[in-house]
Protein: Lipoprotein signal peptidase
Organism: Photobacterium damselae subsp. damselae
Amino acid sequence: MTMPSLKQSGIRWLWLAILVFIIDIGSKLVVMNAMDYGWPNRIEVLPFFNLLYVHNYGAAFSFLSDAGGWQRWLFTAIALGVCGLLLFWMRRTPASNKIANSAYALIIGGALGNLFDRMYHGFVVDFLDFYWGNYHWPAFNIADSAICLGAALIIIDGFVNDKKSS
């Protein structure tokens, strides 16, 4: 398989990564400036959804949030490595592969949004709190949503390409 030219490669989809980054950082700035920190200051929006301004020192779902600070650099290295790998794949993927390229761009935009938070603030801002009864899913943000959607699209792309090759 020959590599597509730069104009015909998935690099054309980087606009989506930039859009995700801007929406993520913008939403976090609104939350930080408009809300007070912590659970007592949550805004009950729906019977299953709150807006809640919290700091996450770990990764998704607060993984390793109590680890003492070294995790900041680990997650920074992982984010940079993943972004580099996905950019490499986007360069090799034809722009016409919408599912794969949008998946890569969503993950890159989300990873860079959380990376910016981690580097600038020392933590990631989370504010979306979904719950059922007394069970609350860990708070998350737009970047986390984009990363999860991108991962789901990679799985879907695998099934779509598998059916095409059969």
